[in-house]
Design a protein that fits this description.
- The complex is a heterodimer.
- Chain A is an alpha/beta fold.
- Chain B is of the alpha/beta class.
- Chain B has a single domain, classed as Rossmann fold (3-Layer(aba) Sandwich).
- Helices cover 38% and strands 15% of the residues of chain B.
- In chain B, helix 2 packs across helix 8.
- Classes of the chains: A alpha/beta, B alpha/beta.
- Chains A and B meet through strand 4, helix 3, helix 5 and strand 10 of A and strand 1, strand 2, helix 4 and helix 6 of B.
- Strand 10 of chain A pairs parallel with strand 2 of chain B.
């Protein structure tokens, strides 16, 4: 172990699943209900061992499916417990109806999701199709570039979810295998600092408040407040943007790693910009920095927060740029509309007077490698688009065997 | 044990009046009788899957429940309650909760036999301390009388109609009580709203065990079964007297018939009280189902007597 600059942190080499399990140990949730699925399995295995060893006070519920994992998480959260689960891919898909119930009941459940492609054909490797499918389920979604961010996001998720202005569940996303199973250098907060940061959880209402019994999940099909409940969820999501920033600043103060809604490279002088999320941001940054050193006016944005979508902030960052290329690790199958990040960013930029030209690169489905050469190809195409003002193909499939 | 009417009348009502269940509904009777069996001085959390009981007792912004209550979805009342119970254990162990709680699920037969089967099996296997009550009206009544795994052979429902090629439901029901017992949980019982003393005693036993318990309560639905609403209790009683719904319990693996039936009535006595079976008795072409039902009842009754040590 090497002591980092911050004396309260230690530098470790761990796989992403261990980074998340460490965050879970430090959060020490009252209840964890989980079901194993590749590539999330090591998270729940490691955490089950922590429970067996008495390192946490968590009551661990080894449920018989992801559907029951989220159901038990909902029950436990409604009962006033701080609750976590973790899943991936088909597991997240099986939870689908419960995702909406967790957010609709305003339960601050924390769930790392190890991004993995959805069947069919069955594939265990990374893409973002699983969590993008849940983008309208009312969950906050934080993407991670590496093990460090997966750990940092998991700790921050607790504070964001439980904030009284928010009270929404949070999904922490980390790329399957690329982050979950690769050894990465990272810094861990010491237990006391982490514990102090996440704080204690005191819900205003709970099924186990003996003095004030409560009905959760009432039927709202007759007298009509459903619409108002949904509007309140949307308002909470809007408020979450500021809370995410606040929590990110506070986390920066204790760790030296401040977080915002997104990170950028070279925006001050870039004429064209790549937008990406997840582990690919590392590869892209490396290539973008190299091209900038060679004089190319390129920049990049690594989107951390996909829900809520920081539309105004992204528009402010991108207005006046000549061209923007969005990298999507999933498709929408909408018939050549492109991936979800592309569609949303393009929509956000619609009212901007100085609209950049926009292109989409769909890459890495089912774990297809995103090489530096492929990124280089996209960067050069983007340079040509910015210069010529022409787009040969709006939606491109990068790295496809053609 | 509070099984005299005088003592039971003193217990506070947990499901209050003013709910929107039909007059003559068996479900509310089942709920009130089961909750009579809850120990004094404990707090309750009730969970419901989606169904009649849920939509009729929690119409926002009202609730009929004088205790904590959660409805999550249709197929997951048992797993939702697993989480509630886990939270209780965790918070109690940490000293954050001082009061004593008990956990009761009231699921219909759809939410128990069919769509909620996996979640229930998982919860029973994991050993959560909860009383799982199936208020069994033998079909999906909330959505308008569709067949379930609890529906008796020959029954008319909207998805098992009789016609040129069918006498109604063509399959026997599954034996959910025995399936629950196969989980080797501490307490399993089959009960009927017509035998209130028997049901309240069973509920008391179910609440007392430190682990999961399961009670399958026959709870007639006059809308789906097609009989006059004032006959709910009578119809349920006939189910017991004909042995199509025998009353028994499985306590720590020991089977015991709790209401003895000396002169088993022919099942037709029960069938003829309800419109859902009327086609079997009225039209010859459907009558082939009648001996099949009687055969099933006899076979299951003999099996139960054997398991209970009442037959060599």
């Amino acid at each position: 172990m090497v002591m980092s600059k911050n004396k309260l942190q230690k530098t470790v080499a761990v796989v992403g699943t261990d980074a998340v399990a460490e965050a879970m140990r430090q959060i020490n949730p009252d209840v964890v209900a989980a079901y194993p699925i590749t590539p999330q399995t090591a998270i729940v295995e490691t955490f089950a061992q922590m429970v067996a060893d008495g390192q946490v006070h968590t009551h661990y519920v080894p449920v018989e499916s992801e559907h029951s994992a989220m159901s038990a998480a909902i029950g436990a959260a409604a009962a006033g417990a701080r609750v976590m689960t973790a899943t991936a891919s088909q597991g997240l898909a099986l939870m689908w109806e419960l995702l909406y119930i967790a957010s609709g009941l305003r339960l601050p459940i924390i769930m790392p999701n190890v991004n993995r492609a959805l069947s069919a054909p069955i594939n265990i490797h990374c893409d973002h199709g699983d969590s993008m499918g849940a983008r309208d389920s009312g969950w906050i979604q934080l993407f991670s570039e590496n093990a460090q961010e997966a750990y940092d996001n998991t700790l921050q998720a607790v504070r964001i979810a439980e904030h009284k202005d928010v009270l929404l569940p949070v999904m922490v996303l980390l790329d399957g295998f690329i982050i979950s199973h690769a050894v990465d250098r990272m810094e861990l907060l010491d237990d006391a600092t982490a514990k102090q940061f996440v704080g204690t959880y005191k819900p205003d209402v709970s099924l186990l408040d003996a003095a004030r019994p409560v009905t959760y999940g009432a039927f709202d099909g007759l007298y009509g407040y459903y619409f108002e409940f949904k509007r309140q969820q949307e308002e909470a999501m809007r408020r979450a943007l500021e809370v995410i920033r606040e929590v990110g600043r506070e986390f920066g103060a204790i760790s030296g790693r401040p977080y915002g809604l997104f990170e950028s490279v070279g925006l001050e002088d870039a004429e064209f910009v790549i937008v990406a999320l997840g582990s690919a941001a590392g590869t892209i940054r490396s290539e973008v920095e190299c091209l900038r050193d060679n004089g190319m006016p390129i920049g990049m944005i690594k989107l951390r927060v996909f829900r809520p979508f920081p539309a105004a902030e992204l528009v402010a960052a991108l207005a006046g740029k000549k061209a923007v290329a969005v990298f999507d690790r999933s498709d929408t199958f909408a018939g050549n509309m492109g991936g979800p990040v592309f569609i949303e960013l393009r929509s956000a930029l619609y009212e901007t007077a100085e609209k950049p030209i926009m292109v989409n690169y769909i890459y890495g489905l089912g774990g297809r490698d995103l090489s530096v050469d492929l990124v280089n190809k996209a960067c050069n195409e983007l340079a040509w688009i910015a210069q010529s003002g022409q787009v040969k193909q709006r939606v491109n499939y990068l790295g496809l065997k053609e | 044990m509070a099984t005299s009417i005088r003592e039971m009348s003193k217990k506070p009502e947990i499901l209050t009046g003013g709910h929107r269940l039909c007059a003559g509904c068996g479900a509310s009777i089942a709920v009130r009788q089961v909750l009579m069996g809850a120990p004094d001085g404990v707090h309750l959390v009730v969970a419901n899957p989606t169904g009649c009981l849920e939509v009729s007792t929690t119409i926002y912004p009202y609730t009929s429940w004088n205790c904590s209550y959660i409805h999550c979805a249709f197929e997951n009342a048992a797993s939702t309650m697993s989480g509630v119970e886990a939270a209780f254990k965790s918070l109690q162990r940490q000293g954050k909760i001082k009061e004593d709680f008990r956990f009761v699920v009231f699921g219909g037969d759809g939410g128990t036999y069919d769509i909620g089967f996996q979640a229930l099996s998982g919860a029973l296997e994991r050993g959560h301390r909860m009383v799982y009550v199936c208020y069994n009206n033998e079909a999906y009544m909330n959505t308008g009388i569709q067949r379930s795994g609890a529906t008796v052979l020959g029954t008319w429902t909207t998805t098992s109609p009789y016609g040129e090629n069918s006498f109604g439901k063509t399959q026997n029901r599954k034996d959910m009580t025995a399936i629950a017992a196969a989980h080797n949980i501490p307490y399993v019982a089959q009960a009927s709203i017509s035998h209130w003393r028997d049901l309240v005693r069973k509920a008391e036993k179910a609440f007392a065990v430190d682990g999961p318990s399961f009670i399958n309560v026959l709870s007639p639905c006059h809308r789906g079964w097609r009989y006059p609403m004032e006959q709910t209790v009578e119809v349920a009683k006939l189910a017991v007297q004909t042995c199509i719904w025998p009353l028994y319990e499985v306590e720590d693996g020991k089977w015991h018939i709790t209401v003895k039936v000396r002169d088993k009535k022919p099942v037709e006595e029960y069938l003829k009280t309800q419109g859902r079976f009327a086609h079997l008795l009225k039209e010859k072409k459907y009558a082939e189902a009648l001996p099949l039902i009687q055969e099933y009842v006899d076979q299951e009754w003999e099996k139960l007597r054997f398991l209970s040590g009442e037959q060599e």
